[in-house]
Amino acid sequence: MSWRYGDQTAVHGLPIGATQRAAVGDAVRAGDVIAAGTTCGSSVRIAAARTLGVAPQDLGRVMRVPPGAEVERGAIIARTGRRFARAVSAPFEGRLVHVRADGDLEFAPIVDRWSVRATLDGLVTASTEASITVVGRAWALQGVAGYGPDAIGELAVAVDGPGDELPPSRVDVRQRDRILVGGGRSGPEAIARAHACGVAAVVAGAVPAAGLRVMYGDDVSAHGDPTRGDVPTVLCLLGFGSGPLPVSIFAPLVALAGARASIHTASARLFAFAPPDACAVDLRMPALALVADWAAVRPLDWPAALSGEIAFPSEIAAPAVGTPDGPIPAANVLPFSADRG
Amino acid sequence: MSVATATGLAATVDVAHEASVRRIGGRIDGADLRVVIGAPLRLAIFAGREPARLAAARAAALGACADVVATFVADARVSFVDLAATLRDARPDAVLVVAGAGDPGGVIDLVEALRGGCAGQPQPPALLVVADEPVRARIARSAAPLRVEAIAGRSGAQAHDAIVGRLREIRRGGEDVVLRDEAIESAARCLAGATARITLVVDVSGASTSLVLATESSVVLAAHTRLGVGSGADRIVARAGLERVRRWIPRAIDAPALLERVFNRARWPDAIPPSALTLAIEMSLAREAIAQLLREAERAGLAVGSLRGAAAIVCTGELARFPRPAQTVIATIDAIGPLGTLLVSRERPDALVAAGALGSRSSETVGVTVEPLALVATLWPRRPTSVTVTDGTGTVEERVARGALFLVKTSGPVELATGGASERATADALALGVVVDARGRPLELPLRDAERLPALGRWYAALATLPSEGVAS
Question: How far is the C-alpha of B228 from the C-alpha of B241, rounded, in Å?
């Protein structure tokens, strides 16, 4: 979970209806459009093979436009014969979305267009109808959960300290297209305001879970919710509720402020595009503790020391770690880089 | 209570939890068997128009502990584009098609949408088809290039077993492991066989929940889901609703504060509840995981009523590891809502799961030891009645009125007689005692906090459930 500079891989899922996409080997920069396509309305079914009198498997031979093509109303989609021709034409302006196994066609009107942007500077290593994979070198910070669409922008620190909460008053339109670092906690008011001001994304130690429900719906989960709609992009680095950032995480964020950056929400990672020596990373990462009745995550800025087995108020007896606020179960203390599922 | 003796098996089993592994057995260099939750399996269901087909598909998904990410019926009036987009976003690992002779048209529309939405994926889903040969052939023609697998089995039960077997194979990912749900089923069979009782095993772990009812000869009902008190906790909230979880907590906690704690727990593998509040949250999550699984089983047409009539309930996983026996007992009876008189027991940490894993790989009798906790008598008397409890210290008679919940602590072997019935329930020494539950079925909680909290406080206090600071404070 800590800062790391090196090769990164990001898989970008595509909606259906891609009309163009980057090819394997293409060099891309974060923010470049790597795929574009159309959003289609309800499709109509056109009996093509039966109308033309050909076997379904022979339909491809007589088609004049390939599957996926956009055509004008009345355009010939498939045709047979010369003197006594039989043809299938487009009933309206739209897109040939699918050729069925029985030789019928699904044809749909175009209602919108979409594009998918790269979140890494690098090379396209795989390109299919469903996803495009980009590999490139960048600074990367792994969070616990990402929400909303991928985001690209300039990294900016909007708080004074690693434990501060991002106040809504610190967010305005001057931060448009930036990725804001929101300290130990960013509430839904600040995130909603940031989204309204055109801020690309908010990165914070923690976000109140109830706020996530307000923004992303009641079925939002603790495991992230990458979406494509017009909703804010949020990256939780430590957990939910409140989570003061360790200095060893916050300091590189400050050092990288001004650099191009991106958030890949599906993998909950922040990428920053800067030279390898742009910041110094403290390799001694603090452990993280789940404290305050599970309502917050805190970095332990001192070496965690086991204090033997004790009985907690819940009457569970377990090995404990001593902290200034009292002992906490050792199981509730994890290395910063631990896999948290 | 030792219900069987191991004969020749001295294997060591590793039982995986969220992030840790507990070794059961003597070896220190490695284990003979591994019990794992298994990879999550995202399953889409395409069902024929008959409701029974949809129910059968859902039952198979529950039997295999699959996450159902999309469900469509053959006559779904959804456009091709919407279907394809939904299936693309759902990213199913497998698609279960259950169709009859009259369904091919509708099902083929769904399969075409699947092809349109998912054929381009790096790992396109496999189609598991339960249908007669002509229907299957038509589906296969529409599905290419997707892989179609015919599910064998003439009867519904055979097909169910075949689907469950295949889906479990996918979850194992080619590894030589025993899935936790398999182990639980095997353990239930072993227990029912050894005790000659219809036994319900209730397993709630961090990432999964299982209900398995077994008789001496076979598993009657098995339902598994990826809801749990750990990494599966946020799924309980998403599926059942936050309010259902909150209603069981015997102290005032607002919804945002609870959600925070549930989300943090979901992302903290093997976390321990240090306080009475967090323990109450974990108990509440366990209750709702079981209750939600019961609701899903009912929707799948499984005979949920038979679970409530089991003569014995054995709790495993996190449910069995609450510090006080009363916590395990009250969470279980609140969630299941059992009828009649039954014995509630719990496993020693992971012992039953390990024994079940051994039993699933061997025809030998496997030794299983469980700890009896309480005899639970569920009553709903028209007029006040009495229960008579006889144990090592003598006989106690208690009056029972509607709405009552109380505990009679016992020592040594116990005999329980309810009302004027001549039938008596007996048990060996119980860790908790006899619990008399006359709260009625289904158990209803008041909606308003002002009424609900005192009611919960009374119930918790009756069984001395939580440490004193946690009760209705």
Answer: 14
User: What pLDDT, on the 0 to 100 scale, is given for residue B416?
Assistant: 95
Do the beta carbons of residue B310 and residue B198 sit within 8 Å? yes
Helix (H) or strand (E) holding B243: helix B242-246
DSSP A286: P
What confidence tier does A96 reach under pLDDT thresholds 50, 70, 90? very high
- CB-based contact B119 A129, cutoff 8 Å: yes
More confident residue, A179 or B216: A179
Q: By CA distance, what is B230's nearest residue in A? A: A341
Query: What phi and psi, each to the nearest 5 degrees, are found at residue A293?
Result: 55, 40
Asked if A328 is an interface residue toward chain B (Cβ–Cβ < 8 A), one would say yes
State residue B318 phi and psi, 5-degree precision: -65, -30
C-beta atoms of A42 and B261 within 8 A:
no
Proportion of chain A in helix, strand, coil states, percent, rounded to 5: 15, 45, 45
pLDDT at B7: 45
User: Given a cut of 70, is residue B4 above it in pLDDT?
Assistant: no
Task: Judge whether B122 and A131 are in contact, CB under 8 Å.
Answer: yes
| Burial class for A173, CB neighbours closer than 10 Å (0-12, 13-18, 19+) | exposed
Mean pLDDT along residues B337-362? 93
Q: How far apart are CA B443 and CA B262, in angstroms?
A: 24
CA dist., res. B61 & res. B167, Å (int): 8
Instruction: Give the H/E segment covering residue B190.
Output: helix B180-195
Whether A239 and chain B come into contact, CB under 8 Å, resolves to yes
Q: pLDDT per residue over B69-98, tens digit each? A: 999 999 878 899 999 999 999 999 999 999
Q: Closest partner residue to A240 among B242, B260, B281, by Cβ?
A: B260
Least confident of A60-69, B101-110, B282-291, B413-422: B413-422
Q: A9-38 pLDDT, tens per residue?
A: 999 999 999 999 999 999 999 999 999 999
Which residue shows structure tokens 């449910």? B319
Q: For the CA atoms of B321, B324, B328, B333, what is the dihedral angle to 10 degrees?
A: 180
The β-bridge relationship of strands A260-264 and A269-273 is antiparallel
Please spell the DSSP secondary structure of A160-190, one letter per residue: SSTT-EE-GGG--GGGTTEEEE-BTEE-HHH
> The complex's ipTM?
0.94
Q: Is the peptide bond before B145 cis (omega within 30 degrees of 0)?
A: yes
Quote the pTM value. Answer: 0.94
Q: What is the mean pLDDT of residues B300-319?
A: 95
Give the distance from residue B68's alpha carbon to the nearest chain A alpha carbon, in angstroms: 15
Which chain B residues have a beta carbon less than 8 Å from that of A318? 272
Give me the helices (H) in B309-441, please.
325-336, 351-361
The predicted-structure confidence for B213-232, as pLDDT tens digits, reads as follows: 999 888 899 999 999 999 99
* B435: helix, strand or coil: strand
C-beta atoms of B275 and A293 within 8 A: yes
- C-alpha distances in Å from residue B28, one per residue of B25, B32, B94, B131, B396: 8, 11, 38, 49, 49
Whole-number Å distance between alpha carbons of B54 and B152: 18
At B365, the pLDDT band (50, 70, 90 cuts) reads low
CB B117 within 8 A of CB A16: yes
Residue contact B238–A45, C-beta within 8 A: no
Nearest-neighbour CA in chain B from A247: distance (Å): 22
CB B172 within 8 A of CB B179: yes
H-run or E-run covering B236: helix B233-240
Residues of chain A above pLDDT 90, percent:
87
